[in-house]
Design a protein that fits this description.
By secondary structure, the protein is of the alpha+beta class. It folds into 3 domains: 29-157, Immunoglobulin-like, CATH 2.60.40.680; 182-226, no CATH class; 228-433, von Willebrand factor, type A domain (Rossmann fold), CATH 3.40.50. It is 32% helix and 30% strand. The protein contains 11 helices and 20 strands. The protein has helices at 4-29, 163-170, 173-177, 209-215, 255-272, 296-306, 318-328, 347-357, 371-377, 385-406, 421-433; strands at 37-41, 45-47, 52-59, 67-74, 78-84, 90-91, 103-106, 112-120, 124-136, 143-148, 152-157, 182-185, 191-197, 219-226, 230-236, 276-282, 286-293, 334-339, 362-368, 411-415. The strands form 4 sheets. Strands 2, 4, 7, 9, 10 and 11 form a 6-stranded mixed β-sheet that branches. It has a 6-stranded mixed β-sheet with strand order 17-16-15-18-19-20, with helices on both faces. A hairpin with a 6-residue loop joins strand 9 and strand 10.
Length: 437
């Protein structure tokens, strides 16, 4: 072997030199990724836990035919749902890679879109950061890379998961049967409803001459006015509302996430039905207040005011919040208060605060239960007997607190966080049937 090595040495050296020259040629034939034209697109807004797409349009130029890999910095709240492995080809994220793996494609001669799908597990304004591009040389021996600085922001909002279905119901005759009755008048009217034949005594100002010309008989216009009321959605953003409750597609949602979703859904339906609607957030004091108003634009103002609210570390003070709200809003209104039952030592104070507040406003109290404790108490989880006994104790403790709160003389709703919207809408309908606030 020692005698063969000297003879082979020149060939090995030549091979190494050839490989080095090939790598150098591959490097020179590979354009710098920094020369690529890259434009990143993403929506301005997306719903919590709802998939949204980011697309990066690449103009290949001299890099046509080469393999490109793209990575980007993204907010910790984001999860990669799918990444691009070719034009229009989406695959699951790479297991074990916190970035999800790179988007990858062979660049054609024309522009190409590399798209990936994210979801956000936290509301608020988040950002996608710098891009890192890698180009593989035509010989496959080298990779050239570059970093493109830039940041794009996206607002993650409550998704209002049941809103579309509820608004369809609100527009149906069934909804009006539930309590949204139209009032017909003949003077001082607001909104056109229909045409009908003239009846002796009708106001001549309502005469519709065009309809008369078409039908050949006297026709008058009818108008409608909605029976509106003032509604303020008052949402607790204190310590207890930060509890994470959901699993599955909504995993990571807190009680506050569900409260905002239910409260904004109620606001949207009430606005669609002609009510004046406002919103307020509180913990140890009132944090946000948007005065009640009508119109579809009001929903946008409400969403903008609360979409990035996060649960604080402070204990909630319902009494102070109601006092401060009464200073801001002196007229009587229906308050939809979304919170939780206070700890046993504070329930009596919470009850007194609600009873005092109900002298000025009509209050519906919606409390949000903890699904994990409820499941543990029901024996649906494999737990130690001592843990289940603790869960049963907490359930009984909560039941006593709810009985105490009902002594305040107001309507108390108790539901799982993901199911809060339905009872709230039912309570609002009952308030309308009974004549508003």
């Amino acid at each position: 072997m020692a005698q063969v090595a000297p003879a082979v040495g020149p060939y090995l050296l030549a091979a190494d030199l050839g490989l080095l020259l090939a790598a150098a040629a591959d490097f020179l034939l590979t354009p710098s990724p920094a020369r690529l034209s890259v434009a990143r697109r993403l929506p301005e807004r997306a719903g919590l836990a709802q998939a949204f797409e980011r697309c990066a349009r690449i103009e290949p130029g001299p890099a046509a035919g080469l393999v490109l890999e793209l990575r980007e910095e993204f907010a910790p709240a984001f999860e990669v749902v799918a990444r691009c492995l070719g034009p229009g080809e989406l695959r699951p994220p790479r297991p074990g890679d916190p970035t999800g793996g790179p988007d990858r494609a062979r660049l054609p001669s024309a522009a190409i879109d590399l798209c990936r799908t994210y979801v956000s597990r936290r509301r608020g304004v988040h950002a996608l950061g710098d891009l890192r591009l890698r180009l593989r040389g035509p010989l496959g021996l080298v990779w050239r890379q570059a970093r493109l600085s830039g940041e794009q922001r996206i607002a993650i909002e409550p998704p209002l998961l049941g809103l579309e279905r509820t608004l369809r119901l609100a527009a149906s005759e069934r909804w009006h049967d539930l309590g949204l009755r139209r009032l017909r008048r003949r003077g001082g009217l607001t909104e056109f409803e229909s045409l009908r034949e003239y009846v002796h005594g009708d106001d001549l100002r309502l005469f519709d001459w065009k309809a008369f010309a078409r039908r050949g008989r006297p026709i008058v216009r009818e108008f409608q006015e909605e029976r509106g009321q003032e509604l303020i959605v008052l949402i607790d953003v204190g310590r207890r509302m930060g509890t994470t409750t959901a699993v599955g597609e909504e995993r990571g949602w807190s009680k506050l996430d569900h409260a905002l979703d239910a409260g904004l859904e109620l606001a949207a339906v009430a606005l669609e039905s002609g009510d004046r609607v406002g919103v307020a957030l509180f913990d140890s004091r009132l944090r946000v207040y948007v005065a009640p108003a009508k119109g579809r634009r009001q929903l946008g103002r409400l969403r903008e005011a609360v979409f990035d609210a996060q649960a604080s570390s402070r204990e909630s003070d319902v009494a102070r919040a109601l006092r401060e709200l009464s200073v801001q809003h002196r007229r009587r209104a229906l308050l939809a208060l979304i919170t939780d039952v206070a700890d046993p030592l504070s329930v009596e104070r919470q009850r007194r605060a609600l009873r005092a507040g109900s002298k000025r406003h009509r209050i519906v109290l919606a409390t949000l239960d903890d699904p994990s404790i409820r499941r543990a108490a029901a024996g649906e989880l494999a737990l130690e007997p001592a843990v289940r006994a603790s869960a049963l104790h907490l359930v009984e403790e909560r039941a006593r607190g709810l009985r105490e709160l009902r002594r305040a003389g107001l309507r108390v709703l108790d539901s799982l966080p993901a199911e809060a919207a339905g009872p709230l809408l039912a309570a609002w309908l009952d308030a309308r049937r009974s004549g508003g606030a």
